[in-house]
Amino acid sequence: MTTLAIIGLGNMGKGLARRLAGKIDLLIATRELAAAEAFAAELPGSRTRAQTTDAAIASADIVVLAMPYAKALEAAANPALAGKIVVDMSNPITPDFANLLLGFDASAAETIQAAAPQAKVVKAYNTIFSALFDQPVNETATLPVFLAGDDADAVASVSELVTLSGFVPEETGALATARLLEPLGLLNIKFGYGLGQGTLIAPAWARLPA
How far is the C-alpha of 138 from the C-alpha of 195, rounded, in Å? Predict the structure, then answer.
């Protein structure tokens, strides 16, 4: 039975947890255990527990780093991530949300993989605004979550997680493809905030009839 740890209680971590609560064995962790316990108590079902970060990582099969890039990179140094599937949902952007910190010759996902060389890193959810998690599942069921990773079994496991969370998994290739997905995440932020389209949007590819 798969156990998932969500590390971080920002909007993305909380949103994903709400979507998954009661569907999977779920561990909630953040720097403040009391905050994790309080949030876990709000979630339905009996399959959610709060733990310290180290304990959650040690107990989980899949670890979601639900935190900004710099914090995710710091967390990736935890040796307990060895052998785990690690989901990176970050976008490496500047504080003013204007530019990427990393360009097309590197990505946050690859940098995190280098910091956790024995983990199986999968890029996912970086083109999804947290507001989408709060919408009815039937309204997000056709929206894609793009995946990139070097380990086929890890990508398949995260693909199942995406489906469970109410989205459509869209595999894009090796982890280096995150070099394209992260600029796409920034473009989505530009549309949402810079161009005033709001946060109930997500990129998707249109498929015309052949």
Answer: 26
**This prediction's pTM:** 0.96
**Beta strand extents in 143-204 (DSSP E only):** 144-149, 168-171
Distances from the Cα of 103 to the Cα of 76, 108, 167, 178, 184, angstroms: 20, 10, 27, 10, 12
Residue 42 lies in a domain: yes
How does strand 144-149 pair with strand 120-123? Answer: antiparallel
Residue 178 lies in a domain: yes
- Which pair of structure tokens corresponds to residue 154? 């890890």
107-154: pLDDT as tens digits: 999 999 999 999 999 999 999 999 999 999 999 999 999 999 999 999
Smallest CA-to-CA distance from 111 within 131, 129, 134, 86 is with: 86
CATH assignment at residue 36: 3.40.50.720
Q: What is the DSSP letter of 191?
A: I
